[in-house]
Structure formats: C-alpha cells, structure tokens
Automatic annotation (TrEMBL):
This is Phosphatidylglycerol--prolipoprotein diacylglyceryl transferase. The lineage of its organism: Bacteria, Pseudomonadati, Bacteroidota, Cytophagia, Cytophagales. It is a multi-pass membrane protein. Coiled coil: none annotated. It comes from Spirosoma soli. GO terms for molecular function: phosphatidylglycerol-prolipoprotein diacylglyceryl transferase activity.
Length: 284
C-alpha cells in the first residue's frame, strides 16, 4: 500500500490579535535578507562599493513586488487590472506572478545600472544581473517553499509514493497530488548552488550575460514542464493548448539562450580585472 504525505502544516506561525505572521511572508523576507548578505560578499570580493548594496536592495524589493503583482493581474486577471489598477498596490496582497517578477527585476536592474555603470563602479546591467540571479535563485526556492507551506499552487493528481494530500486546501484535500511547489523549490536550490560555484570560479572573468542566460533557461525551461504536473491557476487556461505559465516561459528561455550565446561570444572582450581596467561607460 502506498504511503502518501499528509500535509496539514498550519500556514500561520503565530498571531497577536489581528496581526498574523505566516510562513510565506517569513520565507519571502528571508530571501531578500540572505540575498543581501550574499551580494555584500560578492561586492567585497570584486572590490565594488559595498554601500551600493543598500540601494540595490531597495530597487530589488520594489521591482520584485510591483512586477509580481502587476504580472499576476496582467497575465491572469486582466479584467481586475483595468477596472481597478490600484489593486496592484493595495491590500489584500493576493497573487504574485514569477514571470512578472522577472520582468520587474530586469527593469529595476536596468534603472539601477544606469546610475551605477560608471567607470568607477563598473556595475553595468549584465554585471549586476549575472550576480543578482544567484540570490534570485535562492529567493525562488524560498518563495516556492512558502507556497508549499500555504498549500497553494498544487500539482495534479498522482499515485507516486511521495504525493502530498493537502489537508488545508479544501478544494484539493481528498486526492494525492504532485508537490509541484517542492519540485520548483528544489530546482531553484540546485540552481543557486551551481550559480554560486560558477561565479566563485570566474568572478570578474564571468562571461557577461552567461549567468543570466543559465538562470532563464533553467528556471523557465523546467517551469514549462512542471506546468504539466500542476493545476491551472485560472479557469480560462483549461481551454488553451498551453497554459499561461508555459506560454510566458518560451520567450524567457529564448532570451536566456540569447544571453548565454552572447556572453561566450564576447568572452574575449572581458578584461582580467574589470575594476583595474574598466570598460567604456554604459556598455554591457
């Protein structure tokens, strides 16, 4: 007889009056806090101004949240976005889209790099993105584990022995399902360790755009296939040959291929030390 995992974890850690602390929020915040420490370490190793990490954190937090919120409504509930645009920033904060977060992060880093890509700092767009994806991979693992703690974004029914029965999700509580959140969380964790090793090996000699390319190909390539194991998020996806997550993942993977190829084609143009021999202002 198969032994399934009975998942009945309370998504709430504790509450004081009407104030509630939930696992998802804690894991979301930890992703940024730990990521900040990793970026501080990277900046020190590559002789970048450590004080800039405070500014970078602000850009990342704002860009991630706004991008994820706007992306959710644009891709999954456009009627809400057009009727009440303020719902993007007003509580309750339901719905975050990873594709929207990716667009938001890339936009935020582009704006950040416009201020920091001088000859003195050398923080061009691709320099920053190649390093920030290390922390984003860890943040993705943390957030997806938060989805598991919330018993949301569940998988399709299955009879594999590691299937989860999500007791706290009334809609899906009776049938064993793929723990799709755990699949994505572990995939992001593997990517985090690989990117950290990759950067630690090459540091300033990292082909520009290569780590961003690897990130996009890995995350959204796997996301395309994981969607076959997940329940659709909104009803209109049931009538589509590919769901929204899959459709949006295709251009993300192609963009990753572009950056990866571009990075290795231009590898010979990277100086041994970008800080001692800075490139032309504004180049990526």
């Amino acid at each position: 007889m198969l032994q399934y995992v009975i998942w009945d974890v309370d998504p709430e850690i504790f509450h004081i009056g009407s104030f509630s602390v939930r696992w998802y929020g804690l894991l979301f915040a930890l992703g940024f806090l730990i990521g900040m420490q990793i970026m501080t370490y990277i900046f020190k190793k590559e002789d970048k101004p450590v004080a800039d990490t405070d500014t970078l954190l602000i850009y990342m937090v704002v860009a991630t949240i706004l991008g994820a919120r706007f992306g959710h409504f644009l891709f999954y509930e456009p009627e809400v976005l057009f009727k009440n645009p303020l719902e993007v920033i007003l509580p309750p904060y339901r719905g975050l889209a990873s594709h929207g977060a990716t667009i938001g992060i890339l936009t935020g880093l582009w704006l950040y790099s416009r201020r920091k890509s001088s000859l003195e700092t050398g923080q061009t767009f691709l320099w920053v993105t190649d390093r920030i994806v290390i922390t984003v991979a860890l943040g993705g693992a943390s957030i997806r584990f938060g989805n598991l703690m919330n018993s949301e974004i569940v998988g399709r029914p299955t009879d594999v022995p590691w299937a989860f029965i999500f007791i706290n999700n009334p809609e899906y509580a009776k049938i064993p399902r793929h723990p799709a959140q755990l699949y994505e969380s572990l995939s992001c964790l593997v990517l985090f360790f690989f990117l950290l090793w990759f950067w630690n090996r090459y540091k300033e000699r990292t082909p520009r755009g290569s780590m961003l390319g690897i990130f996009l190909i890995w995350v959204f390539g796997l996301r395309f296939f994981y969607e076959y194991l997940k329940e659709n998020q909104v009803p209109f996806e049931d009538s589509l040959p590919l769901n929204v997550g899959q459709i949006l993942s295709i251009p993300a993977v192609l963009l990753g291929v572009y950056f990866l190829i571009r990075g290795y084609r231009n590898q010979g143009n990277i100086p041994v030390s970008q800080d001692r021999a800075p490139t032309k202002t504004g180049t990526v």
